[in-house]
Amino acid sequence: MLGRIITELGPWSWWVLGMLLLAAELVMPGVFLVWIGLGAVLTGAVSLLLWDAGFWTWQLQSLLFAASAIAFTLAGRRYFSRHETDSDQPLLNQRGASLVGRTAVLAEPIREGRGRIRLDDTFWLVSGPDLPSGARVKIISSNGRDLTVEEA
Q: Which Pfam family, giving just one, matches this sequence (predicted)?
């Protein structure tokens, strides 16, 4: 079946596949289908040059497509891993870590090492030295949703 489709459409079958994959990347962003689409476009370009050659069978075309898709994927991963830019908000999805250094007032006293503070619109569990309710504390570290505080 694959051989028949490639034979009927000629070298343009790879161009159509490549453009479909590149268009699918727009619908499902993730920068993965781009590399596979580029492999199909490369196979289409080589097919335009070699279509009438007797050795240029659909099996060889599929092999070139698979190899070029893998090569483009590896090259793309290597390129993007080297050129990652630092975010202007590195703690964007780490809310607890972004609170380190802030001060707050204890909403509930710290007893036996555990208490609660209110920051903005959220109550946070805190651990630290025993302190009465209303004492000012400074957040010194974050472990998931639990914060460690010391007297400010």
A: NfeD
What are the pLDDT digits (tens) for 44-93? 999 989 888 888 888 899 999 999 999 999 998 888 877 666 767 766 67
Does the pLDDT value for residue 30 go beyond 80? no
Domain ranges of the chain: 2-82, 95-151
The domain over range 95-151 is classified in CATH as 2.60.40.10: no
Residue type, 11: P
Q: What average pLDDT does the segment 140-144 reach?
A: 87
Q: Could you give the CA distance from residue 33 to residue 51 in angstroms, rounded to a whole number?
A: 25
pLDDT at 36: 92
Alpha-carbon torsion (77, 79, 81, 86), positive or negative? negative
Measured on CA atoms in the order 49, 55, 61, 67, is the torsion positive or negative? negative
**Radius of gyration of the chain from its Cα atoms, rounded to whole angstroms:** 29
Task: Write the CB contacts of 61 (distance below 8 Å, at least 6 apart in sequence).
Answer: 6, 14, 43, 47
Residue whose pair of structure tokens reads 């000012």 in the numeric block = 136
- The reported pLDDT for the residue numbered 3 is 66
